[in-house]
Amino acid sequence: xxxxxxxxxxxxxxxxxxxxxxxxxxxxxxxxxxxxxxxxxxxxxxxxxxxxxxxxxxxxxxxxxxxxxxxxxxxxxxxxxxxxxxxxxxxxxxxxxxxxxxxxxxxxxxxxxxxxxxxxxxxxxxxxxxxxxxxxxxxxxxxxxxxxxxxxxxxxxxxxxxx
Length: 163
Description:
Blueprint: H1 17-46, H2 53-66, H3 68-75, H4 81-90, H5 95-115, H6 120-139, H7 150-162
């Protein structure tokens, strides 16, 4: 009778049971984080101090690593999916989204800085973060680049290498 030693189990080439459990646990945590981000992102639509876009991008990332089903669901949403696809595929923020983002930031921060009693360091910090965020949003492209025709791309590469 031959016994398989415990330290040699499972045989090489098969996944360890613990590895499978940890992968499922990790995916479950990512899906939970994704749903938490979706809820916070949707709340951010209605609450001016809670940002929507970062939470939705975080949800898209978590779902892409945790669940193909929920990732596809998020990307196919009629109002939210297009903006997420634009960002993921092209790094684009559409002009309407830029206008809304900057407009609401200016209004919210202007009200907060002007009418609420906040220490000066709080106002300066808030305005610095707002200025950086506005600069970031406004410097992103507004439209995806047009795809380059393969012949024109080959011609440009040939001209670049001949000089």
